[in-house]
Amino acid sequence: KQWYQRRVRGAKSMKVVDGLMIHTGEPKRMYVDTAVRHVLLRQGVLGIKVKIMLPHDPQGKVGPKKPLPDHVSIVEPKEVERKIEQPYSELAEKVVEPAPPMSMMSK
After folding, report:
1. What is the pTM of this model?
2. Phi and psi angles of residue 101, each rounded to the nearest 5 degrees, phi first
3. What is the residue-level pLDDT of the chain in tens, covering all 107 positions?
């Protein structure tokens, strides 16, 4: 019997992540800038992928004008004084009196 040891040089990858990155939908197309470069070395090919998320820019010079869809801005309500002269209910319906029967109208 012979035993062979096979040396396999599989592809190795490293991931370096910092901060928030969007992965799907229309915001990804607007906010994420990607670049891919391949470098030929003696040992083989080295590939580099870079994804950069652009900041929101209201002027549209550095990043997209449109804000992220999950961005929530809370606006304080205006203070309005209202004098209530007579209490009333907005949900109450008007009471419609039923019409008298036809037999009483002919008399």
Report:
1. 0.53
2. -60, 155
3. 555 555 656 777 888 888 888 888 999 999 999 999 999 999 888 899 999 999 989 898 888 999 888 888 889 988 877 777 777 666 656 666 777 776 655 55
